[in-house]
User: What shape does this take?
Amino acid sequence: MEEILIKDIDIIDPKVNETAQMVITSKEEDTGKRKKLYIESYGCQMNFADSEVVTSIMQSNGYDTTSSFENADVVLLNTCSIRDKAEQTVRNRLGQFNNIKKRKPEMTIGVLGCMAERLKEKFLEEEKIVDIVAGPDAYRDLPQLVLSAEGGEKGVNTFLSREETYADIAPVRLNSNGVTAFISIMRGCDNMCSFCVVPFTRGRERSRDPYSIVNEAKDLFEKGYREVTLLGQNVDSYKWSPEENNKSWLEKKERKGESIQVINFANLIEMVAQVSPELRIRFSTSHPKDITDEVLYAMKKYDNLCKYIHLPAQSGNTRVLELMNRTYSREWYINRVDAIRKILGEECGISSDMIAGFCSETEEEHQDTLTLMDYVKYDFSYMFYYSERPGTLAAKKYEDDIPLATKKKRLQEIIDKQQEISLERNRLDIGKIHEVLIEGTSKRSDEQLQGRNTANKVVIFPRGNQQKGAYVKVKVNDCTAATLFGEVVS
Ligand code: SF4
Assistant: This one.
């Protein structure tokens, strides 16, 4: 098993572009619309949030969702391209649709997301069953692409936009627990980490209008949601200005020499935190190069800004970080962690992503990753071994020269280290009382409920007469590396 998630499996991977192979499917819905949509989402939360936008677009074009693809008129797979394995999973899945397509030739099958964007027309050549290929910025065009496909014309739209944020589209919450929801605040990424396909599959960075984000949070709160996660490939570079997002207006202002109002990420999280103290806010993914003390002090100011940061390190060695083009050193990363600990305290949850066996990584450099984990004491991490991706800088410039056995050995050492640290960190919580937002019934027993504390740790406790969506105080009396167990005290 090359990828391990050190948490209860039902906790969605917070990383917007890294994947634990999560598959989320559409739910059954009948509002009398004449056609049925079945949608399956692979990969990260950004893809999942996009599937909610796609469902909204299709709903306003005459589609209800269904949870069984046999009953669907249109089947859409929202794909991931972060590792070869993720793409293989999609190809295998398409293979499973062959029989139904033979029985139901009028069914339209489409592929969305990063793999669609990476392969473009080639997808139609390689997978004959596919009728539509639409990239992450082309979802408004889906109803038209479906109409053409129903007329026998296969379609591809993989245009990457510099403006598109789908800010005006109210996502349809799929598979929701009614308590937590995602809000995408920006799209694309301007970093060029050498191992990553995202800049090629999701395009240039653009930040969404903050007032539409606040309105979406208000709407969710009124509908009973009590936690939102703000999503972006690199939330710390969120920057919005009425001027900047409207070029011509910006030039007019500049000509007049007027100052430009810019809303950065610290400003945005304060705006969302002010929706209601009862609404928790999380965000993902942070970037060590850009996370500022201003963001940390904003988090300190509001109790409902959860004290948890997903801060991918990827490696603990500066030479390897340079090869990865992560644009920070080991020392810089440690400086950011020290700032988090100083401003938000030892209890603030920190998680990471680690890549084992990157091109030319030596045993000593691998040891640097393990010692960094000892220093930071991550609560959990997403850990992978390097999977070369076509078209990336690393694929062009570096040889993928670490033997698979060595990659797997190093990955296992990172996993064992994380398991050890997660257990140590969770043991520190025994005897403490945490405020937990109840998300639903635990997977372990109907007699138990589960939720998370501010540090994003899963807490399981006896149901009693507690309800989903409520905040409770839980005294922790036991733990595993992935979970805290306790009793409600108030
Ligand atoms: S920050 Fe790096 S790893 Fe993350 S999406 Fe951007 S390019 Fe990929």
Remarks:
- The two ends are 41 Å apart (CA to CA).
